[in-house]
Amino acid sequence: MASKIVTGKRNHLLSDLLVNGSLALICLIWTIPTVGLLISSFRPMFDIQTSGWWQVFPHREWRVVEEITPGPDLDRQGVMTFAGASGTFEELRQGVAADGVRVQWIGNRRTGRVEVQERVWTMNTDFTLDNYANVLTGKRYQVRQPDGNVREVQGDNLNNAFLNSLIVAVPSTVIPILIAAFAAYGFAWLRFPGRKILFIMVVALLVVPLQVALVPILRTYVNLRLNGTFLAIWLAHTGFGLPLATYLLYNYISTLPRDILESAFIDGASHFTVFTRLILPLSVPALASFAIFQFLWVWNDYLVALIFIGSKPDVQVLTMRLAEIVGSRGNDWHLLTAGAFVSMVLPLLVFLGLQRFFVRGLLAGSVKG
Amino acid sequence: MQETEKLASPSAGQQHRGSEPGGSSALVQLLLSLLAAAVLGVVLWQGFLYLRDSTDPKWVIAIVAILWGVGGVAATFFVANWLIEQLPMQVRQAVTPYLFIGPAVALLVAYLAAPATRTFIASLYDRTGANFVGLQNYLTVFTDRLMLEAFRNNLLWILVGATFSVIIGLLVAVLADRSRFENFAKSLVFLPMAISMVGAGIIWNFIYQYRDASNPQIGLLNAIVVGLGGQPQSWTTQFQPWNNLFLIVIVIWLQSGYAMVLFSAAIKGIPAEILEAARVDGATEVQVFFRIMLPFIRPTVITVSTTVVIFTLKIFDVVMVMTGGQYGTEVIATLFYRSYFTNRNFGLSSAIAIVLLLAVIPVMIYNLRQFREREAF
Fold this sequence. Notes:
The complex is a heterodimer. Chain A is an alpha+beta fold. Chain A has helices spanning 2-41, 45-50, 89-94, 130-137, 159-189, 195-205, 211-224, 230-253, 258-266, 271-282, 284-300, 303-309, 318-328, 333-353, 355-363; strands at 59-68, 80-82, 85-87, 96-98, 101-106, 113-122, 140-144, 150-154. In chain A, the strands form three sheets. Chain A has a four-stranded antiparallel sheet. A two-stranded antiparallel ribbon of chain A has the order 2-3. The longest helix of chain A has 40 residues, at 2-41. The mean pLDDT of chain A is 81. Chain B is built from 16 helices and no strands. In chain B, helix 3 crosses helix 4 (89-122), helix 7 packs antiparallel against helix 10 (243-268) and helix 11 (272-280) packs antiparallel against helix 12 (285-296). The termini of chain B are close together. Classes of the chains: A alpha+beta, B mainly alpha. At the A-B interface, helix 1, helix 2, helix 5, helix 6 and helix 7 of A face helix 1, helix 2, helix 3, helix 4 and helix 6 of B.
């Protein structure tokens, strides 16, 4: 009996370990990509290009303890010996180990030098805010390279793009919510001809892919000279976000208790007053859920911006700007790492601060088109 | 919703207060509201012109734009309501519902329903939209080499990407449910939901970085491969056809969190007694999962799977940022973009978009059927 309890306990401990262990592994895999980029964004430009970001953690590295310049009369074709290690030129190029040190030939056969290296624990903690200053100001700035030369590097101005993203995202979040809340109230509490068929349209449009609508809208915009204006992209995001917004808010508003409304009507309030004074305040949780959803969606959107803003550089949003840097300067990791984080700051804050609302919005059943 | 219990007309109350239309005050009201509408119209138009042509500092434009956009919509509703209230009772009652649903319906028609119809019509015409070609574009869509490659890749995206997103989401939800670190773990897995696909593309591009074997690797994946004695690879480009899988990983990373949140809520909804009873009867954890949990959360599995499949079907940003559709990674949405914006083929791009629409029609029908079953609307 006693042994059974013990095995039970051991099993429990084992399964606990298994559960938490695998969970920790998944979390680690899920977090490392972002952490790597975050760490890199604080490393000097040259470091990012020449060593992995994990070098900021303690690791063992060969460090030069002595430099030898071989004499001109040394026979470089045969076996040479430095600091107790001997080998041919080819072997020395790869590095030859000898009692605790490594001897390596650096440079070419004729004028090169020899390094005696020791393996030591080290960490690369050279951090800087230069990358952020660089993507935010866009000025040309100077970088000191390891060989002592100073090079001028062109920065990239994301300020403008950041503001554009904000100008696009805020109205593109508020406008559809307002319009959808009105519509949700109309569908839930008013009776009028065409109500059913119109709501069926809302449900049907929930899953329609954006792609079917983009080109005709673009053509209309070009004709109306609306292309590249904020109004154009707000309306586009509003139109694309409306089915989900209306559907979610309808689900919420139609379940509000009727008695509150009826007493308001008896007091002589109009539908408009009831809506603005009663329904909107009561619907704040649902409005907040959708607001976060839509804000993240618009802020992170690339396709809609790409098509309706096109190549106008002064109205470009962050995602477009970043994608452009990836295309034109894809190896400038000092720009990309910091730039990516500049673009993530706001959604991450919104997300972490309002996660509860966001999750509620997701649970309300969201299939976005 | 009870069809019989219609709301009493709000106007009944108003009449008691003696604010019937008629008399001089009503006329003043009418004139005032008309004036307000005119002022609003002028202000909005001026704002539009300002925003289109202004060269002021960006932050000034930002404030004006946000005030103009948000305030403009609110003010329009307000003024429109004011105008409607000046109408005779009968008319007002008939018009009010359309004040509420009108803007939404108009936008839905203008931005989704009508363009979709126009796209369908355009798909039957040639590249300029001038000559009717019947189903020629669709024939091209289903025979063109690049299109077939895109279909193959999209299928791969759905089979691998969607499947793994759902499975990993489910796995994390089940594990987290039994862990003390539930909320922390869930937050970490959920976090990528806040990151744009462009941002995610940069994050993973960095992981996949390739350096010549003679240089130290700065990409984590190649560093691991080299550390284990392998040769570095350029995972997303030359490493065909497996490079598609390395792109798919990004989307699994992005959307597993979504699946997890929904599964987690569903698992919490399973009555504890049922699980307890099964365990007392000697069911193993695996049996509990497959025989009880899974059937119980089946509706959620269906919802999550459809959402994830639709999302994966339309995948665009990741491919565009990572490879631009080159190296055999083309998908339907990138081909759509290229056929219109690069090749200027209006007819073909429309046909590709319609193919995407056709692919989601079963889901649309399912949604509608669900909706009709759920409530007597």
